[in-house]
């Protein structure tokens, strides 16, 4: 009955959509208080050096923060280059704007989106209809607890969006590309 939750916050703050500093203490404390979760913080490889460079998180404070994970029985920092194993073994992802949103969306698993500002294109805006949007710690905690209990009201919506947005032609990609090129070429002639 252990739920594996991964957290993948944005690594740069200058765009105004990184939620790391909004939830860093809340999430590790939540993990420490809830032994029914396996919590994985998966920072971008450049995150800690970026925050040190900008003065937002000193190396000393970063090490103190890392030690909280190192000393926890049910929380860890995943710094491996390969992330698909973590995706597939997880149950829930907490994130903000990220290029990995679409990849994780295809797992069909719930995404808790920590909203700061709108910067979605049309494609990601459509995907976001299947996200659980949160704006503060209380909403985040309520949403995690709801999903941990097995209540996932957006599960069917995600399936519908996957079928609509990630359509694969039954004849295969090569056939689809050939037909597109042929149709496009006929317009020219």
Describe the structure.
The protein is an alpha/beta fold and 189 residues long. The chain is built from nine helices and six strands; from the N terminus they run E-H-E-H-H-E-H-E-H-E-H-E-H-H-H. The protein has helices spanning 20-33, 47-53, 59-70, 84-89, 101-105, 122-127, 137-148, 155-165, 173-188; strands spanning 3-8, 37-41, 75-77, 92-95, 111-114, 132-134. The chain has a six-stranded parallel β-sheet with strand order 3-2-1-4-5-6. The longest helix is centred in the C-terminal third of the chain and has 16 residues, at 173-188. The chain is globular and about 65 Å long. The mean pLDDT is 93.
Distance between termini?
Answer: 62 Å
What is the spatial order of strands in the main beta sheet?
3-2-1-4-5-6
Instruction: Calculate Rg over CA atoms.
Output: 19 Å
The helix content is 40-55%
Give the class from helix and strand content and strand pairing. Answer: alpha/beta
| Secondary structure: number of strands | 6
Main sheet overview: 6 strands, parallel
Number of helices: 9
Order of helices and strands: EHEHHEHEHEHEHHH
| Overall average pLDDT | 93
Low-pLDDT regions: none
What's the overall geometry? Answer: globular
Please state roughly what percent of the residues sit in beta strands, choosing from under 5%, 5-15%, 15-25%, 25-35%, 35-45% or over 45%. Answer: 5-15%
